[in-house]
Amino acid sequence: MKHTISVLLQNKPGVLSRVTGLFSGRGFNIESLSVAETLESTISCLTLVTSGDNAIIEQITKQLHKLIDVIKVTDISESEYVEREMVLLRVKAEASTRAEVLRVIDIFRGKVVDVSPKSYSVELTGSASKIQAVIDILRPIGIKEIVRTGTIAMARAPKK
Q1: I need a labelling partner for 29 at 20 to 30 A (CA). Which of 16, 115, 120, 124 fits?
Q2: How does pLDDT run across 84-120, given as a tens digit for each residue?
């Protein structure tokens, strides 16, 4: 089962290396990894997606807590949360396919961020399944390049 884990950590050199080393040293796979500063420049939020049963996820979170620069570890997949991913696609856009590409992009609420005589560069944001759906639809038209951010996620605020 996939788990999305949010880790608050000190924004220092080598911290990310220690986190990824923990995974590789124990044979765990990181399916997605995203990290950036929070409102406080000395703290970063790392969001990672990994797979495993409850025992493996518990072992991962315990090992993460042991790292000296880790402040907080939360398996946010245990509660309601919002997740997003961003993708940049360079799609073939010959004269015969330009209108179709634009329709698909519009349906998925994407936007064209660059145009060349033979291609569109497109930005899309959404769930991993939405991103995959767009890729599946545009693949027959001709995707020249894909760059994805990986998952970022945030627990939903309490509704009280």
Answers
A1: 124
A2: 999 999 999 999 999 999 999 999 999 999 999 999 9
Does residue 160 register a pLDDT over 80?
Answer: no
User: CA 13 to CA 11: how far, in whole Å?
Assistant: 7
Cα distances (Å, whole numbers) of residue 49 to 3, 32, 89: 6, 5, 22
Buried b (16+ CB within 10 A) or exposed e, 76-101: bbeeeeebebebbbbbebeeebbeeb
pTM for the predicted model, two decimal places: 0.82
| Complete edge-to-edge strand list for the sheet that includes strand 70-75 | 30-37, 43-51, 2-10, 70-75
Q: How many CB atoms lie within 10 A of CB 147?
A: 10
Query: By the 8 A CB rule, do 120 and 112 touch?
Result: yes
Tokens of 36: 């950036």
Q: Contact at 8 Å (CB) between 89 and 40? A: no
Taking 3-state DSSP, the helix, strand and coil percentages for the chain, each rounded to the nearest 5, stand at 30, 40, 25
pLDDT digits (tens, 9 = 90+) for 44-79: 999 999 998 889 999 999 999 999 999 999 999 888
